[in-house]
Write a structure and sequence with these properties.
single chain, mainly alpha, Multidrug-efflux Transporter Regulator, Chain: A, Domain 2, 4 helices, 3-stranded antiparallel β-sheet
Length: 97
């Protein structure tokens, strides 16, 4: 199932050679969100880069789920702070001109 904007977890797991139970554990830790329809469980294409990054951290770098949870939290915070810095720099430029 590759509906518009979604990819089947069966398809994703088969292509990455991982168990669906791993995805279930990610969902339990609120690291990803899945969508269930009549046919299967899927993940949105917007979340696909996050899911792939988590899979790489876990299987290639051997980071446990708690560590991944911490990393994702810190990256989210860092991105928010970078956004705030850009907004403040733009405000500062307006006052400098």
């Amino acid at each position: 199932m590759t509906e518009e904007g979604f990819i089947s977890l069966d398809e994703f797991c088969a292509s990455h050679n991982i168990e669906i139970s791993f995805i279930s554990r990610l969902q339990e830790h609120d690291l990803i969100r899945t969508v269930t329809n009549a046919e299967s469980i899927a993940v949105s294409l917007e979340e696909l880069p996050v899911l792939e990054r988590i899979v790489r951290m876990h299987f290639e770098l051997d980071i446990n789920l708690e560590g991944i949870e911490t990393i994702v939290h810190l990256l989210t915070k860092m991105n928010a702070m970078q956004s705030d810095i850009i907004k403040l720099q733009n405000k500062l430029r307006r006052y400098e001109d």
